[in-house]
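New to this. Help decode the following:
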Amino acid sequence: MGEDIRVIKTKNSIRDALFELMSEKELAKITISEICVRARINRKTFYSHYRAPADVIEELENEVLGEFSAIIRRSGESLLNIGTAIRDISATIEQRRDFFKRLLRLNPDLFSNGKIKAMLCRLITVSLKNAGVLSDNETALCAAAEFSVSGVLSLYSMWFDNNCADKLSFITNTAVDMVTRGLSAYVSEEKLAEMKLALKR
């Protein structure tokens, strides 16, 4: 069962208040009292949901990671679905653009290190193993995943560095093209045909 609508509204008010304050000062300098005034709630209400302002950010990060995780599950960790997974991840990033902008100010290495990168590296690694590729060469497998994922995430970083000036779809198409072509090179045409046939069953 989902959260009560009143809880959702309260949390959204807290998040909006925190984001407003983050445009004015660093997260570490934001007090709970300031959030409560902006959100028009009392401290008791804040503490019923969070212990500190950083907990609000952590909850949002976990929500995004949960969305990414769901995308990866839908992909079936198949090499044939990598492109779709990247497009769905891009759609999530674009939908939460303002959140990611603020998050990048807090953590400029968001796309170069951490949970997002680890999650995507695992997707590539398992997808290659499932395709019977490089499973006997862990070093080459990790290198292929690292190269592919670092490229995609650096494109997202570039997009935010340019203040999201271009359409994300252009960057996404570039990422999908480069990754799918690069990874498909590891797989024989016969194996690809076999995988496509299995997908249709």
